[in-house]
Design a protein that fits this description.
Layout: E1 7-14, H1 22-34, E2 42-44, H2 66-78, E3 81-90, E4 93-101, E5 107-111, H3 121-124, E6 134-136, E7 139-145, H4 152-155, E8 165-169, H5 177-191, E9 194-198, E10 201-203, E11 209-211, E12 215-217, E13 223-226, E14 232-239, H6 240-249
Parallel strand pairs: 1-2, 2-3, 7-8, 8-9
Antiparallel strand pairs: 1-14, 3-4, 4-5, 6-7, 9-12, 10-11, 12-13
Length: 263
């Protein structure tokens, strides 16, 4: 049985990525995680953390091979929920798939819903149609992928089954950095939840530059952590009681519109 935790610790791992080099990336993340100053309940890695944001589907892995097994190993080693996305080959169809891997080796998965047409992602990958909510140590998390951030309907909190944390893994380039920061703040305010956004740094072979700007925001949209434009790790601690008090004092979620999404 999971331990319910009043205070949840979340590790944001902002990293440069070795282009299309799975072995180098996994080894690099192992070193970064070994250097964390304290244990974390949740470890968050960037989008396509094992390759960078590539359209080379030859690198897509079947499930339960190298990267999935690595995530299971890391989750067990750190006794944490490990979150990140990578390219998956499933019967000849390709997905930008997010995994939430538990220490016991079980995992939940969802595929990126909004594929980045400008980057031709929709020509190579298949869009997901299920939004995931994960329960972990007494908290509910809604994890999404990068471009999903621009589409608030997909991430909207529901009054009948609200989540506590909205989480984004990303490869979000510096040219749109203002949108990244602004939309993270908006998602926190409108959904009355904590928001975690983990982005990469460095440059990729597509000529895109990334400055990170990974962030942890509270339910007011106020920053709890803002990461600078270099490789770094940060652990934040969030309070379930503080969230409950705020939602009770300003009960906006019950006034939200009811709707259904037809995929």
């Amino acid at each position: 049985m999971q331990e319910n935790k009043e205070i949840l610790s979340i590790a944001l791992v902002q990293a440069d990525l070795h282009w299309e080099n799975v072995t180098a990336n996994l080894a690099s993340f192992e070193e970064k995680l070994a250097a964390l100053p304290e244990p974390a309940d949740v470890i968050v890695l960037p989008e396509m953390f094992n390759t960078g944001f590539t359209m080379n589907t030859a690198l897509a892995e079947p499930m339960n091979l190298t990267t999935t097994r690595w995530m299971k190993q890391i989750a067990k080693q750190h006794n944490a929920l490990v979150v990140g996305s990578f390219a998956v080959n499933e019967g000849g169809r390709f997905f930008n798939r997010l995994l939430c891997v538990r220490p016991d080796g079980t995992y939940a998965q969802s595929d990126k819903r909004h594929l980045f047409t400008m980057g031709e992602e929709s020509k190579h990958y298949t869009a997901g149609n299920v939004r995931l909510t994960v329960e972990w140590r007494g908290w509910k998390l809604c994890p999404l992928v990068c471009y999903d951030l621009r589409f608030p309907v997909w991430s909207r909190n529901r009054q009948h089954d609200p989540y506590d944390i909205l989480l984004y893994v990303a490869n979000w380039p510096v040219r749109r950095a203002h949108a990244w920061s602004t939309l993270l703040q908006a998602r926190a305010i409108e959904n009355q939840c904590y928001v975690i956004g983990v982005n990469r740094v460095g440059a990729d072979e597509n000529g895109l530059e990334y400055r990170g700007d990974s962030a942890a925001l509270d339910y007011l949209g106020e920053p709890m952590a803002l990461l600078a434009g270099h490789e770094t790790e940060k652990i934040v601690h969030i309070s379930k009681a503080d969230l409950a008090v705020y939602r009770k004092s300003f009960p906006a979620l019950p006034d939200a519109d009811e709707f259904e999404i037809h995929c």
